[in-house]
Amino acid sequence: MSEWTTLKVERHGEHVAEVILNRPDKGNAMNPAMFREIAEVFDALDADDAVRAIVLRGEGRAFSYGLDLQEAMGMLGPHLQGGLGGQRKRLYALIKELQHQTGSPARCRKPVVAAVHGWCIGGGVDLISACDVRLCEVGAKFSVREARIGIVADIGSLQRLPRIIGDAATRELALTAKDIGAERALRMGLVSDVVEGAEALRARALAEAEAIAGLSPLVVQGVKQVLDATSGKSIDDGLEYVALWNSAFLASLDLGEAMASFFEKREPRYTGE
Fold first, then answer.
1. Per-residue model confidence as pLDDT tens digits over 110-155
2. SS3 category, 257
């Protein structure tokens, strides 16, 4: 992988990668370079067959303060003057590009575990809502804050949060732009667990990723694909999709290894074949 300016990528064992937002002096605020590198990193990890699970966290005192407003004005400013059609078209293209970049964890076939400590604001919430599992530290705070700065949240929260926490809770967060703590986030279902201490949080997230990586990558990626493809569909449509999926992918060397390891009373060694 290339060297990144706003991210770090570390490997743990054979099959786990850790993606670290690395602008700690800026609270990991998301600037154009970070948006671009998020997409590049997750695309690279998606293509790396050795990677089976990913942890996403922030360096320093916060997960992310959200959009870097100072750099955002340089990015957005030229599109906010006047009302000519060409400017509107370019602004639309920019928003679509940011949506694509922020949604990279969701498009990645490998499950992504977000580990949130400190503040997770605006674009940070967009980013974690594109992840598969979310854990947080007891001192974490979350805010869908765009309404405070005159913006309709437009890069993922309003679309993904209703599937995670429901419509009512999403409206509460987005319409009030309030801050919530870890325990409220847990009750809402925004996170699945709260951990005491940043180091314990990282260890827990890595343990979750290791557990995922220890399973058949064919099955794990199939579960993510089925959940994503059938979200919002009827139960019958979902059952039809998973029946087609398994009829295509059930027969595998990993299935044979699962059966053999069970009868031989040993840990399975999955290859993804």
1. 999 999 999 999 999 999 999 999 999 999 999 999 999 889 999 9
2. helix
Q: CATH classification of 7-213 is 3.90.226.10, yes or no?
A: yes
Nearest by Cα to 213 from 16, 17, 59, 65: 16
221-265 pLDDT per residue, tens: 999 999 999 988 999 999 998 999 888 888 888 888 888 888 888
Give the SS3 label for residue 249. helix
Burial string for 236-259 (b: 16+ CB within 10 Å, else e) reads eebeeebeebeeeeeebebeebee
Helix (H, G, I), strand (E, B) or coil at 136: strand
Please check whether residue 221 is in contact with residue 52, taking contact to mean a CB–CB distance below 8 angstroms.
no
- Strand arrangement of the beta sheet that strand 53-58 belongs to: 7-12, 16-21, 53-58, 112-116, 133-137, 193-195
Partners of 18 in beta bridges: 10, 55
Nearest CA-CA partner of 26 in 10, 5, 43: 5
Does pLDDT of 80 surpass 80? no
Q: Where are the alpha helices (DSSP H) in 167-234?
A: 167-176, 182-188, 198-213, 217-230
The continuous run of DSSP H or E covering 232 comes out as: none
What lies within 8 Å, CB to CB, of 175 at 6+ separation is: 147
